[in-house]
Amino acid sequence: MSTTYLIRNARILGGDAADILVEDGRITEVGAGLSADGAEIVDGEGLVALPGLVDLHTHLREPGREDAETVDTGTQAAALGGFTAVHAMANTDPVADTAGVVEQVWRLGREAGHCDVFPVGAVTVGLQGERLAELGAMADSAARVRVFSDDGKCVSDAVLMRRALEYVKAFDGVVAQHAQEPRLTEDAQMNEGELSGRLGLRGWPAVAEEAIIARDCLLAAHVDSRLHVCHVSTAGSVEIVRWAKSKGWNVTAEACPHHLLLTDEKALTYDPIYKVNPPLRSAADVEALRAGLADGTIDVVATDHAPHPHEDKDCEWQAAAFGMLGLETALSIVQATMVDTGLLDWAGVAERMSTKPAEIGRLSGHGRPLAAGEPANIVLYDAGATRVVDPTETASLSRNTPYAGMELPGRVVATFLRGKPTVLDGKLA
Amino acid sequence: MKKHLLSAGDLSRDDAELILTTAEELRSLADRPIKKLPALRGRTIVNLFFEDSTRTRISFEAAAKRLSADVINFSAKGSSLSKGESLKDTALTLEAMGADAVVVRHWASGAPHLLANAGWSKSSVVNAGDGTHEHPTQALLDAFTMWRHLGNLDGRRVAIVGDVLHSRVARSNALLLRTLGAEVTLVAPPTLLPYGVDGWGVETSYDLDGVLPKADVVMMLRVQRERMNAAFFPTVREYSRRYGLDGRRMANLQDHTIVMHPGPMIRGMEITADVADSDRSVIVEQVTNGVAVRMAVLYLLLGGSEPALSKNAEGDE
Amino acid sequence: MDARDVSRALTRIAHEILERNKGASNLLLLGIPSRGVPLAQRIAAKIASVEGHDVEVGSLDVTMYRDDLRMKPARALMRTDIPSDGIDGKVVVLVDDVLFSGRTIRAALDAMNDLGRPQAVRLAVLVDRGHRELPIRADFVGKNLPTSLVEKVSVHLAEFDDEDAVLISGTSADDAPSREEESR
């Protein structure tokens, strides 16, 4: 296979068209009218070129739930979505709370080769929220873990959270908190609002998220450490993060595509495809998230790609699993909610879906500019295309996309991982 | 009428009044030598109960049998923790048996909705109580009981008192009574009113004594003692003192005011024995009316080639 | 037929019933809703004026016993009103407005079967338009109206239609009858 690619006439970050020459895994030249002998030509006419996307929040399910997703299938979905790096969440079985498990996931990612897999280490042993996991061992392992999270569960014990924030400073780590006060959300099913009362589904109050975020911002400031807030879903959370940032504290936050688009009205169908943690919120919350993402209060878009086998979604709402797919639709949802609405330009998208997440994850080889000398992690995206989401066409093993049948803008045409196409013509290369 | 009865909110005023007038006709059946009508001969009705409720099951069973339907009782009990029998597999089984209607009681809110809309079965689905969501036939029998005692419900004041938060009866009653023109006041300690109840289009009050003198109907809801452990109220004694209906409070009611309870009652908790057994109490009548109302619902859903047409929907379909 | 014709026909039926029954004792007039009910009441009133005491009147809805129940959307029930002592041992006169296929009367006989055991059942109709599909005939007929199947017979009664009349209309659609024809 050719190791030299010449991408012609792609609009870098949505700007003017230029050619990009890719040789031996790196971008060697960017400019007009480039040529290179023997290079494979990729027509970029009309396509937006972005740095390869980086997801801070992916559930690959392996080891343990290979019926829902494997590292191989999950990273295929990632590549098709334009991602060149994903952070694999720790809530596997066994939990990624030791160097052994994180190295296994990291190795599986390398073998699959569709995108880089950076395991997230659990904060506490078995996600039990009782004792710290061996964070240092995971940081020092071949997987080089920098992001630690009990995602799926909240590190609700304030002392434990404080210690974790302190401890990861030794290796420049970050604690990514799943902000959910457990007592306030016992058996909670959907956003607490008028609708939860009417539908008879136990409410999940915004305050259960906001109270933890506020506490953790204060803790992070107190111990002068880095906090990352997972899947911010409420207007109040955006306010708190904005306030923390205004203080100069080292707090970053992510929002998920589904929280930028869907509201709790979806629960009216009682279709658990819309059951997710944190829950879909109100239209006002959606507006606040979009505004927060636009003004930089929310630093990144993370997918919280959460595959579940059919039987865990084809049942009563109360009995169903939380979570929805996200990797293959994330960029389209961001286009629909942020770009097409005028809230963000493509440079802004690149920053929130590549540069910033790479920075938070301390990934040196990702989230770099599309410039000579940089690693050739590139996604070519046709923003003018539209497609109707067909769940049976996902590369993911699971089918639980909330967008089935919806017409979404945009299509990933090609993804390059260190100069090698993982996706070409919209198909896995 | 729609094909399914999932929520009291599915009923237009015409639908609801058609059910009440039909129930009025069917109620007289109880006084006849042969308590049987042929309307649902050859129809199969399945009582699908994922949660125990002998009263509701028997009421639906009697209703279906009096209309000559074949009745199959299917108990698929499973707690919300151990998922138990899969709703989908059960639905497919019932479909294979050729059920014309499925009367479903389920611990999960929305389960009847799923059964009706997931494409697993073609049967009509009647919600016989789902989680903390709704219990539309209970609301219909309550409205029927009120209607028999008070006539037209327009402008009538109905106080629904107790654990509204966890009550499917309260939700369905609030929807149906509004449709029928009544003014509903939900009375409970603030902890037992749902978040966002302001959007329901009903009044709320924390003060039972302020509401009683104006009420035409007082409906007491069951309050489980265990709620005390989740801090919904401090003690049973304090709850009873503030929200229980006793003889002293009953004395403040208007002469025509009736007292209702969907059962099962906890005497001494939300209602005292002297109130439950008083002349105002129509609690036993509610049970009788339950059969007539459920007959009406089953007849109007299954008696013809399709559910009865609403007056204003006639010609549309 | 106009209002006077209707009244004369009902008077005659009343007299025929009395004659056949040898008086008003043990009689129960059961009207079939909707228009059979006021007809039964009017006949009862005429009998009462002749005999000097009231005759029992009731109504019998046959909706659930119809053989075409499953051919249309579920129909609203109409009033069934049976005296508290039932129909056992009584002479029941079923009253309806138009006798056509005979299917309504069959349904009424079935319905009565679930109510008890009358001594005898008779049938009174305001109009017999022929075209029977079952072996049923009326004992008391206000008027025989030979019609073609494409024609429609409409009975108007003051209780529903502000006038008493029996009209025959042709096939034209805008000449629609005010009530649904007896089902065939």
From TrEMBL, chain A:
Keywords: Hydrolase, Metal-binding, Pyrimidine biosynthesis, Zinc
HAMAP family per UniProt: PyrC_classI_B
CDD domains: DHOase_IIa (cd01317)
PROSITE patterns, per the entry: DIHYDROOROTASE_2 (PS00483)
Role this protein plays: Catalyzes the reversible cyclization of carbamoyl aspartate to dihydroorotate.
Annotated Zn(2+) 2 binding sites: D151, H178, H231
A GO BP entry: 'de novo' UMP biosynthetic process
Annotated protein name in UniProt: Dihydroorotase
Classification via SUPFAM superfamilies: Composite domain of metallo-dependent hydrolases, Metallo-dependent hydrolases
Pfam families referenced in this protein's UniProt entry, alphabetically: DHOase (PF12890)
Family to which this protein belongs: Belongs to the metallo-dependent hydrolases superfamily. DHOase family. Class I DHOase subfamily.
Start and end residues of each Dihydroorotase catalytic domain: 48-235
Encoding gene, per UniProt annotation: pyrC
Reaction catalyzed: (S)-dihydroorotate + H2O = N-carbamoyl-L-aspartate + H(+)
Active site annotation, chain numbering: D304
Any one GO MF annotation of this record: allantoinase activity
EC number(s) given by UniProt: 3.5.2.3
TrEMBL record, chain B:
Domain of life: Bacteria
Role according to the record: Catalyzes the condensation of carbamoyl phosphate and aspartate to form carbamoyl aspartate and inorganic phosphate, the committed step in the de novo pyrimidine nucleotide biosynthesis pathway.
Matching NCBIfam families: asp_carb_tr, PRK00856.1
Assigned EC number: 2.1.3.2
Protein name per Swiss-Prot or TrEMBL: Aspartate carbamoyltransferase
GO cellular component labels: cytosol
Annotated ranges, domain Aspartate/ornithine carbamoyltransferase Asp/Orn-binding: 155-301
Keyword Transferase: yes
Source organism (scientific name): Nocardioides iriomotensis
One Gene Ontology term of the molecular function aspect: amino acid binding
The protein's annotated pathway: Pyrimidine metabolism; UMP biosynthesis via de novo pathway; (S)-dihydroorotate from bicarbonate: step 2/3
Assembly, per entry: Heterododecamer (2C3:3R2) of six catalytic PyrB chains organized as two trimers (C3), and six regulatory PyrI chains organized as three dimers (R2).
